[in-house]
Every structure is written in C-alpha cells, then in structure tokens.
Write the structure tokens for this entry.
Amino acid sequence: MRLTTTDGVAEIVLDDPPVNVISAVVVRELATVLDGLRVDASTRVIVFSSANPGFFLAHVDLRLAEQLEVLRELAADAPEGTNVFQALGERIRHQPRVTIVELAGKARGGGAEFVAAADLAFAARESAGIDQVESLMGIVPSGGGTRYLLERVGRHRALEIVLTGELLDAETAAAYGWINRAVPAAQQIMSAALRNGAQTPDGEADLEPLLRALAPGGR
C-alpha cells in the first residue's frame, strides 16, 4: 500500500501482488493510515485506487489462519459487536474526509464491501466489475456488505446481488446505485472534479458537518 498527499488529496494505492486481497496486515495498515488522516486537517479528500489494473480488491485473504496474531490484535481494537472486517468498513464510512474509490478492475466479496463503505465510487466503464461472490462459496457477506447494499440499492436488488453472486459491470452497478457512475477509464471525470474541489477556496471548508448530516446513523 502506498500513500501520497498533494494539495489536500490523500491517495491510497492498494498494492499487494499478484492480486490485492484483504489480509490482516492490509487491514492493520489501512487502519493506521486512516486514523492518521482523520486528524490531519490539511487532508480534504481520500482517494482509493489499485496498482493492479485487473483487481481493486479480490476478496479476503484465504490465508488468514496464518495471521492469527495480527487478527487478535485487530479484534481487540474493534468496536463491540463488530468483526475485524466490519470495523474496517466502519472506519472508512466514518472518516471526516470525503472518501472516493476509483474502480478500474474487479472488486469481489470483501472488496465490494470496501467499495460500498466509501462515500463515492466511480468505475471504469470498460474494465470494472463488482460482486458479492460469497453465496457461491457457501457463506454470506460478513464485512458490512448486506447493510451497505440495503442503503445503496434497496432490499430487492440487495437480495439479487447477494443470492446470485453475479459479477456486475460498471454500467449495471451504476444503474443499481451500487456505485455513483460508470465513466471512461481514461477520464475518471467525476473523481477528478472532486479532487479539484479539495484545492479551491470552497473546498477548504470543513466538510465533516456535511458528511455527518448525510450519513445514515451519523458519523
């Protein structure tokens, strides 16, 4: 994972080859970075992207059993009633900065939950895809996905997404409300506009009250 901050925009690039997965180590690194950005008054926008053009996040690391020490550490720090992965989603949702996902490749399972936890998501029309694949593995989404889907797409489409495990392309995901828009990969139009907003005089205003007012249940 790489972090760069320029003119109020913090860019977090997920980089865990060969495909990005949500490991315990990645969760710990993200928690540390997000907690630091939370108290950094110069940061206005947080943008998540991937160094891998094919994958944003390809679900949870299946080798979690090898990371028990880190998992125990994270579980001890998680809010009561949440697991490690739900705690990550809530940490993203409750950031006092605008969080944006630039989705160029696939977000599957836990990766899709990560996307839905962000304030905004813009996906490459030509190459992006998103799904809750868990049902095909005989499990249910457990990182906050069911709750986030209800808020974004409503009950009926949430059921469709969870029960079928179907990989949705960017335009379908946008039509459902899972992401904000499908845009040409070379442009990332809306994300670019919001990045620029962090650099204008108006963008220097404290966005936390607005985000708190618009967040279900508050931030």
About this structure: The chain has a mean pLDDT of 85. The chain has nine helices and ten strands. The longest strand covers residues 9-14. The chain has one domain: 2-205.
